[in-house]
Specification:
Layout: H1 5-10, H2 22-41, E1 45-48, E2 53-56, E3 59-61, H3 67-87, H4 90-94, H5 97-115, H6 125-148, H7 154-162, H8 168-188, H9 191-195, H10 199-206, E4 212-216, H11 229-233, H12 254-264, E5 272-276, H13 289-292, H14 298-319, E6 325-337, E7 340-350, E8 357-364, E9 369-372, E10 377-380, E11 385-394, E12 404-412, E13 417-425
Antiparallel strand pairs: 1-2, 2-3, 4-5, 6-7, 7-11, 8-10, 8-12, 9-11, 12-13
Helix pairs in contact: 3-14, 5-6, 6-7, 6-8, 7-8
The protein binds iron/sulfur cluster (2 copies).
One iron/sulfur cluster binds next to helix 11 and helix 12.
């Protein structure tokens, strides 16, 4: 059946509200939307270019670790490749923000037409479309603020959106993004998926006969009653009966629920399914648990294994090196006065955490005092390494002339602790 895509995209159908897949797809989309908004607001992921603060997984990383941003981006890219190899274009229909925005815009349009009880050509149709456009414009500004909050502080973004003249660069960021999103939601929507998005053509390279896809079961062709509901309900306006893997098919599964709905009323199973291949024996009930999870061959196993190793490496690099280091060397300067004997050292300390730390200095093994520039504490910025002059002052009564005594210097902060062995010398 030949379908005019252009016409279908202007007049999309709403996805069925019931069914096996669409309620779950809506839940996944809702969770993804909440996550996209929550991440920058809760410091789950945010690169604050003004304050030089990088947050990932609710974990602050210092500006000097921004190289990790590259590896995090590479990990996200590889994760997308791995999901695509294992589960085909599930990303497009279930998680992609472009699909979420298009689904929202199309669904809102239908709901408003229903609420205003209007159709094209009727007087209240323009009112329905006007309200639709205003809601989408407001959503676009909200999206612009959300995206800007990934790069600026949420408070800066809020102020800039409300009073643009007080922070022109931030306001421009918000409203330029909002303008792009508004154009996308008002005019582009699904056209982007089959005309500009590189993901579909790339999937053509990755996909093979074992790739998960929405497929029409040709072996049961005789059961098709040619009702056309799968085509009418398809948000992309295509006919899945023409074959799996069509460039415009986003694997949303709407047609699966539509056909189940039609044939279910006649006591038959639907003719469209998510399947790893076309053969009749690939029905879900015939698969082993490995095949259900998508492990059809060694390539898929290795793709997942490399993802796990890569994620482990990035995770350890980001979160696993929160260890302070401390070393000290005697610089040979030793003096004596009424306060006691003074031994000088060069102390080098690295703060291993992404937060500032204040270390209290104390000495074990001798009744001595440890000071840096006259203070018995040392404060370091996140991840800072500093070399500082340390003076150990001990009483003459605890050592004999010419004695070398090994003592322990303690550096203790609320999050970290280190010990350094020092040799305290009393001159002859
Ligand atoms: S053919 Fe089916 S799975 Fe593909 S886009 Fe249309 S409704 Fe979604
Ligand atoms: S919804 Fe099912 S029965 Fe109706 S045309 Fe599509 S495949 Fe055939």
């Amino acid at each position: 059946m030949a379908i005019d895509l252009t016409d279908r995209i202007i007049q999309p159908s709403p996805a069925p509200k019931k069914g096996r897949w669409n309620p779950w797809r809506r839940v996944v989309q809702l969770l993804c939307g909440v996550l996209l908004v929550a991440l920058p607001l809760t410091n789950g992921m945010r690169l604050d270019v003004r304050r030089h603060e990088f947050y990932f997984a609710w974990h602050r990383t210092a500006a000097q670790d921004l190289l990790m941003l590259f590896w995090v981006s590479m990990l996200a890219t590889w994760a997308l490749v791995a999901v695509s190899v294992l589960y085909g274009r599930l990303w497009c229909g279930w998680v992609c923000p472009q699909t979420m925005a298009s689904d929202f815009a199309d669904s809102l349009k239908k709901r408003l037409d229903k609420a205003f009880r209007t159709r094209p050509g009727q007087p209240r149709f323009a009112l329905s479309r006007g309200v639709w456009s205003l809601i989408l414009l407001a959503m676009s500004v909200g999206t612009g603020m959300t995206v800007a909050a990934y790069w600026l502080s949420p408070s800066d973004v809020g102020h800039a959106a409300l009073r643009p003249w007080t922070d022109v660069p931030a306001a421009l960021t918000v409203y330029i993004i909002a303008a792009v999103v508004a154009a996308d939601m008002l005019w582009v929507r699904r056209k982007f998926c089959y005309s500009a998005c590189p993901y579909g053509p790339l999937m053509g390279i990755v996909a093979d006969k074992n790739t998960l896809a929405v497929r029409y079961l040709n072996e049961r062709e005789d059961d098709c009653i040619k009702c056309g509901k799968c085509v009418v309900d398809c948000p992309m306006g295509i006919d899945i009966k023409n074959g799996a893997g069509q460039l415009a098919c986003i694997n949303c599964g709407v047609c699966v629920d539509s056909c189940n709905d039609v044939l279910g009323k006649r006591g038959k199973a639907g003719l469209i399914e998510y399947r790893y291949g076309l053969e009749p024996e690939r029905a879900a009930s015939n698969l082993t648990w490995k095949q259900r999870l998508g492990f059809w061959d060694a390539t898929r196993f290795w793709v997942l294994a490399t993802l796990v190793v890569f994620a482990g490496y990035v995770g350890l690099s980001l979160f696993g090196h929160e260890k302070m280091t401390a070393t000290a060397i005697a610089n040979g300067a030793i003096t004596q006065d009424a306060a006691g004997i003074h031994n000088d050292y060069l102390l080098t300390v690295e703060n291993g955490t992404p937060e500032p730390q204040t270390y209290a200095l104390s000495v074990d093994g001798m009744n001595a005092r440890a000071e840096i520039h006259g203070a018995s504490t040392l404060t370091l910025a996140p991840r800072e390494q500093r070399a500082a002059p340390l003076i150990l002052t001990g009483p003459a009564t605890e050592t004999a002339p010419g004695e070398r005594k090994v003592v322990t210097l303690n550096l203790v902060s609320p999050k970290e602790r280190a010990q350094v062995k020092l040799v305290f010398y009393r001159p002859e």
